[in-house]
Design a protein that fits this description.
It is built from 6 helices and 5 strands. The protein is an alpha+beta fold and 163 residues long. The model has no long low-confidence stretch (mean pLDDT 94). The protein has helices at residues 25-32, 77-80, 88-95, 105-118, 124-130, 142-162; strands at 4-10, 13-19, 51-54, 57-60, 73-75. The chain has 2 domains: 4-79, Roll (Ubiquitin-like (UB roll)); 88-162, [2Fe-2S]-binding domain (DNA polymerase, domain 1). The N and C termini lie far apart (56 Å). Residues 4-80 form the 2Fe-2S ferredoxin-type domain.
C-alpha cells in the first residue's frame, strides 16, 4: 500500500504531506515536518514525551497514525512559544527549575498548556492528576508542579490586570 496525502495544520501552518497508512504522527512531525520537539520515548503511550495538542486535546502522538490526524489543528511545543519569546509556562519551568535533562519537558509543557486551558486555576492536586500521563525520570515532579502553578498564577494575574 502506498503513501496517502494528508493535510495537517501544525502550529498555524497548513501542510500537505505524504504518509504511509501505518506511519505514526510523531514520526510525521519529526521526520517529515522537522518538528523535533515531540520526543519519541517509550512508543507505548506511557511516557508522554510525544504529547501534542490536537483539536484542543492533549494527545500522545506515538499512539495515533498520521492519517488519523488528517484535517486536524496540531500544536507542538514549537507552536506554544510567544512570537517575542517564551510562553509563560516555558519561563516558569526555567525559573522554578521544572526541568533537568529536558527529555520530558516538551511533552510536559504541552500537556500543562492544555491543562491550564481546561482549568485556569488548578490546585496542586489537580496539576498532579492533570500531568499524570507524562513521566519524568529526573525531577521528582515537585518543581514541575511549582512551575505549572506559578504559570497559572502569572496568567491569572495578567488577565486581572487587563480587566
Amino acid at each position: 500500500m502506498g503513501k496517502q496525502i494528508i493535510t495537517l495544520t501544525v502550529n498555524g501552518e497548513k501542510h500537505e504531506v505524504a504518509a504511509e497508512p501505518r506511519e505514526l504522527l510523531v514520526h510525521t512531525l519529526r521526520e517529515t515536518l522537522n518538528l523535533t520537539g515531540p520526543h519519541v520515548g517509550c512508543e507505548t503511550s506511557h511516557c508522554g514525551a510525544c504529547t501534542v495538542d490536537i483539536d484542543g486535546k492533549s494527545v500522545k502522538s506515538c499512539t495515533m497514525f498520521a492519517a488519523q490526524a488528517d484535517g486536524a489543528e496540531i500544536t507542538t511545543i514549537e507552536g506554544i512559544a510567544a512570537p517575542d519569546g517564551m510562553h509563560i509556562l516555558q519561563e516558569m519551568f526555567r525559573e522554578h527549575h521544572g526541568l533537568q535533562c529536558g527529555f520530558c519537558t516538551p511533552g510536559m509543557i504541552t500537556r500543562a498548556y492544555r491543562l491550564l486551558q481546561e482549568n485556569p486555576n488548578p490546585t496542586e492536586e489537580e496539576v498532579r492528576f492533570g500531568i499524570a500521563g507524562n513521566l519524568c525520570r529526573c525531577t521528582g515532579y515537585q518543581n514541575i508542579v511549582k512551575s505549572i502553578l506559578a504559570a497559572a498564577a502569572e496568567i491569572n494575574a495578567s488577565k486581572e490586570a487587563a480587566q
